[in-house]
Amino acid sequence: MDTPTEGRRGPLTLWFATALWKRILLAVLLGALVGYFWGEGAASIQWIGALFVRMIRMIVVPLVFVTLAGGVAAMGDIRRLGGIGLKALALYMLTSVIAVAIGLGFAIILQPGAGVSLGDATPRELGQPPSIGDMLMNIVPINPVAALANGDMLAIIFFALIFGAGILVQGETARPMASILDQASAALLGATRIVMEVAPFGVFALIAGVMGTTGPSAFTSIFKLAIAVYGGCLLHMAITQGGLVRLFANLRAVRFFRDITEAQLLAYSTSSSAATLPVSMRVAEKNLGLKPPVFSSVLPLGATINMDGTALYVGLVAVFAAQAFGVPLGLGDYLVIMLTTVLVSIGTASVPSASLFLLAAVLTAIGITAEQTALVVGFILPFDRILDMMRTATNVTGDLAVATTVGKWEGEIDLETYDAHAAP
Q1: pLDDT tens per residue, range 212-262
Q2: What is the chain's alpha carbon radius of gyration, rounded to the nearest angstrom?
Q3: Above 60 in pLDDT, residue 390?
Q4: Which fold has domain 18-420?
Q5: DSSP-assigned letters across all residues of 352-410
Q6: How many CA atoms lie within 13 A of 273 on its CB side?
Q7: CA 308 to CA 91: how far, in whole Å?
Q8: Are 295 and 413 in contact (CB under 8 A)?
Q9: CB 308 within 8 A of CB 96
């Protein structure tokens, strides 16, 4: 005979029994609702979200180093490192070019800048974007320890690649170090699982703060631009990134999107590819079945240089600015925007609203002055966070789509895990 308590599930048991992505989605919806009704007061709880983001970022640097170095060491043949890296880079560049084209298409069709007055915007001066030479030079760290301490992701990736390659070159002598890196990676992924239990509360606070301080009314002046950004990103995720998984990897795209929901929601709420990276790695391994040699190398690289959403957005805003200031654009101008945007997006920091401050390089290329650029940024910046949330989700989706495709090509994916995983 069952006891009266058998079959019952308390609130705490029910909470932990619910899939994490469902809890995060609930937090997004409740946060938006609370922020809408609470208004400016919702900003008082944003510190909870900021604390959660700090917890995630705490894990990012050590996780990237140990998983990337360990993943390279697990390849067994140093030649595979070049193969995986080149394939990932080629796909990242391809999807970025397509993203810019989609952004330009939405800008041309919807004409979001036509008739927009920027006279009331407060100019925001922009810093000079780094030159290509400086970006390439800074990839090689003078002091790897300082790079780790400062969170210089490109430098960390370079050092981790060299360190992992060194283990391969040394062979059996360095095998114990490879084992240590593998164990450290497992521990850090476990720590990520612990931190992610805080995610629903952090996401709730972040969304409530954004909705309370910005609110839906902020979109009245840029409604067309917001529609273009969200529509372009959704189309790019469905057609380009989903098509990559379906056509290039010959895997079911619907299952792919279902299994990465957790990473997408976190990217949307934090607006940071870097903060989402530990979760992307966990999703790649546990849900998609990707193996360390691929997810530990392709995902950190993607979080640093793959910015599909950013490329789409910057290209779209460039045309928006030209329309607002009455600058005519020809085919050559659109090609210049595409080329410049792809190059600029590679150097975009994976933090909220960073792409706005790289607009100068693209806008200058089509004849927009520094003063006009400052007006455009001043016009968009107050509500850029909501736009940034969508393009960050697009960036992270692209990272996982490329990693999945490369994993299939390299035979570094557990297809049983990919096909059998079923989110509750």
Answers
A1: 876 666 556 578 888 999 999 999 999 999 999 999 999 999 999 999 999
A2: 22
A3: yes
A4: Proton glutamate symport protein (1.10.3860)
A5: TTGGGGGHHHHHHHTT--HHHHHHHHHHHGGGHHHHHHHHHHHHHHHHHHHHHHHHHHH
A6: 31
A7: 11
A8: no
A9: yes
| Residue 288 DSSP symbol | S
* Count of C-beta atoms within a 10 Å radius of residue 247: 11
Contact between 229 and 391 (Cβ < 8 Å): yes
Report residue 416 as tokens: 């049983």
CA–CA dist 118, 376 (Å, integer): 7
pTM: 0.78
Buried b (16+ CB within 10 A) or exposed e, 118-134: beebebbebeebeeeee
Q: Which of 9, 385, 18 is nearest to 199 (CA)?
A: 18
Look-up: residue for tokens 């273009």? Answer: 228
- Dig out the tokens for 136 from the structure: 């390439």
Under 8 Å between Cβ of 153 and 348? no
In the structure encoding, which two tokens stand for residue 417, read together?
């895990």
Alpha-helical regions (H) of 18-129? 20-38, 46-73, 78-110
State both tokens at 315: 């290209």
Cβ partners under 8 Å of residue 401, min gap 6: 95, 241, 242, 244, 245, 256
3-state secondary structure of 290: strand
